[in-house]
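Sequence and fold
=================
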Amino acid sequence: MVIVRNRRADWVAVIFGFMAVLGCGKEPPPAVETAGSERTAPVNESAQSGTIGLSVLTLTNPFFKVIADTVKEEAAKHGFDALVVSGEFDVALQRNQVKDFIVKKVSAIVLTPCDSKAIGPAIQEANEAGIPVFTADIACLAEGIKVVSHIATDNYEGGRLAARAILERLNGKGKVAVVDFPEVESVIMRTRGFFDELKQVEHQLEIVGSWSGKGSKDESFKVTQEILQSHPDLNGIFAINDPTALGAYAALEIAKKADRVTIVGFDGQPEGKKAIAEGKIYADPIQFPDEIGRVTVRAIIRYFEGEEVEPEILIPTKLYYQADAEKDPELAQIQGHTTN
């Protein structure tokens, strides 16, 4: 249950209190931002409607498209518009998009950074303009900036689940490559969880290396071809998202090694789930991008209402196997549309 206070009465009491102490004609000092989970906003009754500016990593990846669509839908429920743009992996473009949000005086900014460190100066500009910034899925790792809250999948735990899946499939033996995307914080957490899980258990896996596939199908296809040239006896691949996994599979198929190399992906996008159903990908720790979008908007609304907003909100993931795909009604619907 949410208790709604009479904020107008509170502010009247505060104003008269300051007038009694300081005398008429002087304004009270500005509110001081506190640290951690107490980072709250003063109630802004004019901000009960407005515009949320959202810049995602890319709209070519269905995961970020779902986040964008859900933010629009949820924002509308609360009387806000959503202005959605895409950085398309270009942090310079994304910086300019933030500048445009500032010029348009949006009520709040949501970012899934194209580069977790290089986006820092843009967030600093928004801070100086007094516009609250939230991050979704990908966090900012730059120092000296203020982000109200980061809403994301528990990527670290998801990485641990990915390691468990590949250990399970390979019986703890074989050579494994990681097709990475180390420029973004969410992937850093996935790979960290993956390697930490391997440190916790006895196994005979050999990690032959990590290569950046830049989170895309085309780049991951090329990278996997290079990996296979150096390691023709490869047994497994941890691919940090579904486009990466699908690119890796395409390279394995051309090399006629698709039945010899196990792929564990990450995401649970429809295309990835379909590949799991077809046996191309062994398993995915799946994410819930619609939930990320909803929780992000609700965190913004809570902030404007003066409530405490957690500095980080993590959404659990779970492993998704072929058996899950076989009874997934959403996937069955998608496949039905494909065959019709």
Summary: Confidence is low (pLDDT under 50) at residues 1-47. The radius of gyration is 23 Å.
